[in-house]
Amino acid sequence: MLYSIILASHNALRWLVVLAGVWAVFRVWRGWMSRAVWAEADLNVGRLFVNAISIQFVLGLVLYGVSPLIRQGMSDMGTAMRTAGIRYFMVEHVVMMLVSIALAHIGLAKVKKATTDSARFQAATIWWGIAVASVLGFIPWNRPLLPF
Predict the structure, then answer these.
(1) Can you state the percent helix, strand and coil of the chain, rounding each to 5?
(2) Which of 11, 48, 68, 147 is the most exposed place for a label (fewest CB within 10 A)?
(3) Residues 6+ apart with CB under 8 A from 45
(4) Longest dimension (CA), the chain
(5) pLDDT tier for residue 143 given thresholds of 50, 70 and 90
(6) What distance in Å separates the CA atoms of residue 30 and residue 14, rounded to the nearest whole number?
(7) What are the tens digits of pLDDT across the range 47-99?
(8) Intra-chain end-to-end CA distance of the chain, in Å
(9) What pLDDT digit, counting tens, does each position of 93-108 carry?
């Protein structure tokens, strides 16, 4: 029961991560291309993306701890690493999402350290863009689109 609730929550929250990430990247890319003035709203949309992906990570860690698939894999690591579906959730998904989270946080730090509006927009577009691309590339799209 707990596993189902956490899995459904993790599944649903991915849409907030995707939407916030895509919106953040679009907004900062548009600002970069139009040579706009950096606004607090630009930072806030980036914070929304970074916070959403961070919450998703914590939920994913809890899910990792209660998942029967992970328990099965941990009981026989050799077989788990030879089984694509189990290996994906035990290693590949986790590692790539950690990379995505790191990229999002680095992007936010680069934005805060940048001294010009153009540099802020450029850093945000590049770092958050790569983070969103890696999220989109490693979401298990074969799972139901909605958790219900």
Answers:
(1) 85, 0, 15
(2) 68
(3) 20, 23, 24, 27, 28
(4) 55
(5) confident
(6) 24
(7) 999 999 999 999 999 999 999 999 999 999 999 999 999 999 999 999 999 99
(8) 14
(9) 999 999 999 999 999 9
